[in-house]
């Protein structure tokens, strides 16, 4: 099904191609396998076959950061909460309270140490393994069974308290009850295996296996569509988002970016010496890429081709808050947006009005579009 483009402005046209786009190799990472990335509080982290590395100069250079950790097995994923940076490895889960200067293992309750990905919801840290999902409510000091026992789970993403995972051979699942139950969510998907998931402004992106590609869901996994405008088929291992751009990491074809929620994609590969990308991350100043055999690379954000708007807008555009939401949203603008329509994915008008607050309590969870003369804003209502 062809969905409405995800817009927060009046409309977005073609990208303006930029001849200055180029990648720069991060010093200290040449010829290294890198599999995961995290940017946090002025530090950039990269992990791979030689353990963990960190940068304090916007990924211009990296130094090894394996004190208390291990450099013997791949670092496969990162996440963080208010106090710690966490990493999952082939030797368990570790955490650091000082931005990676030292690590401590936190693996009590994990039946195996081979872990593949991490995520965080309010008050919980999640880790996925080849034998299911586990969570911790005490910052990793102990781990509880999160379900999908015996399933080879490889990636994880969250929207609010809802957790989504991708598996090898068994497709995609989601849980709304902290892993007590899991629901398969594969309608529209043509891949059985997934190694990457990302939530971008409430929309899910999933990286399928060879022969498929990047799938998108605008209804929290109830349905999926394979994206094909400017992005090739193939295996995808990672995503990144900064709220404006969604970037996809192809494991043979390089880096692709979209500024319209995945409707159109553009390759960003000039200068890369390895097009097998494991992961991507946005920092405040750069897009960084973790490659299979050639280390970490960075590109300034200003070098990414910018979207070309079909209208010149000098006044602030309306937006809504909170989004995602459970019951209501409120227009946030310099002035009232004027008359609006609330429309569902089928294009049916559900409500009309002119008030600043829009009540959603009577509508089921899902994606809606709030349309005014000034803007069309996508709204995600969650449980």
General description of the model:
By secondary structure, this protein is mainly β. It folds into 2 domains: 294 residues, Methylamine Dehydrogenase, Chain H, CATH 2.130.10; 63 residues, Immunoglobulin-like. Helices cover 0% and strands 45% of the residues. Strands 2-29-28-27 form a 4-stranded antiparallel beta sheet, with no helix packed on it. A hairpin with a 7-residue loop joins strand 25 and strand 26. The chain is globular. The two termini are 24 Å apart. 47% of the residues are buried. The N terminus is likely disordered.
Write the layout of secondary structure elements.
Elements: E1 12-16, E2 24-25, E3 34-40, E4 43-48, E5 51-55, E6 63-64, E7 75-80, E8 85-89, E9 92-96, E10 104-105, E11 115-121, E12 124-129, E13 132-136, E14 144-145, E15 153-159, E16 162-167, E17 172-175, E18 183-184, E19 196-200, E20 203-207, E21 214-217, E22 225-226, E23 236-241, E24 246-250, E25 254-258, E26 266-267, E27 277-282, E28 286-291, E29 296-300, E30 306-309, E31 319-321, E32 328-332, E33 340-344, E34 349-353, E35 357-359, E36 366-372, E37 376-381
Give the CATH architecture of the largest domain: 7 Propeller
How many β-strand runs?
Answer: 37
Helix content: under 10%
Oligomer state equals single chain
What characterizes the major β-sheet? 4 strands, antiparallel
Detail the poorly predicted runs.
Answer: 1-19, 308-317
What general form does the structure show?
globular
Query: What is the helix tally?
Result: 0
**Overall pLDDT:** 86
CATH homologous superfamily placement of the largest domain: YVTN repeat-like/Quinoprotein amine dehydrogenase
Record the strand order, biggest sheet: 2-29-28-27
Cα end-to-end separation: 24 Å
Please tell me the total number of domains: 2
CATH class category of the largest domain: Mainly Beta
Strand content: over 45%
CATH topology of the largest domain: Methylamine Dehydrogenase, Chain H
Decide which structural class fits the backbone. mainly beta
Gyration radius, rounded: 21 Å
């Amino acid at each position: 099904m062809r969905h409405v483009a995800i817009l927060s402005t009046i409309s977005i046209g073609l990208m303006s191609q930029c001849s200055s786009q180029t990648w720069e190799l991060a010093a200290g990472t040449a010829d290294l396998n890198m599999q995961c990335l995290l940017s946090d509080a002025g530090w950039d982290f990269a992990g791979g076959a030689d353990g963990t590395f960190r940068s304090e100069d916007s990924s211009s250079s990296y130094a090894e950061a394996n004190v208390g950790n291990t450099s013997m097995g791949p670092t496969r994923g990162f996440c963080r909460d208010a106090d710690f940076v966490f990493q999952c490895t082939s030797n368990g889960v570790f955490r650091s309270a000082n931005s990676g200067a030292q690590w401590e293992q936190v693996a009590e309750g994990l039946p195996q140490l081979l872990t593949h990905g991490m995520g965080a919801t309010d008050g919980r840290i999640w880790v996925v393994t080849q034998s299911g999902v586990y969570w911790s409510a005490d910052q990793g000091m102990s781990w509880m069974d999160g379900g999908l026992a015996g399933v080879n789970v490889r990636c994880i993403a969250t929207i609010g308290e809802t957790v989504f995972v991708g598996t090898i051979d068994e497709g995609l699942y989601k849980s709304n009850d902290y892993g007590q139950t899991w629901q398969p969510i594969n309608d529209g998907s043509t891949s059985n295996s997934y190694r990457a998931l990302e939530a971008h402004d409430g929309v899910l992106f999933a990286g399928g296996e060879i022969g498929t590609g990047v799938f998108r869901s605008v209804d929290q996994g109830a349905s999926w569509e394979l994206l094909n405008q400017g992005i090739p088929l193939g295996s995808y291992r990672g995503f990144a988002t900064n709220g404006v751009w969604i970037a996809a990491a192809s494991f043979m074809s390089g880096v692709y970016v979209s500024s319209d929620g995945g409707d159109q994609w553009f390759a960003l590969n000039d200068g890369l010496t390895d097009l097998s990308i494991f992961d991507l991350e946005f920092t405040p100043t750069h897009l960084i890429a973790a490659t299979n055999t050639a280390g970490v690379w960075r590109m300034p954000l200003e070098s990414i081709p910018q979207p070309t708007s079909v209208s010149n807008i000098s006044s602030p555009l309306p937006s809504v808050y909170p989004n995602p939401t459970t019951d209501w949203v409120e227009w946030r603008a310099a002035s009232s947006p004027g008359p609006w329509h609330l429309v569902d994915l089928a294009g049916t008008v559900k409500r009309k009005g002119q008030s600043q607050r829009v009540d959603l309590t009577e509508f089921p969870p899902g994606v809606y579009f709030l349309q005014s003369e000034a803007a069309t804003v996508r709204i995600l209502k969650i449980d």
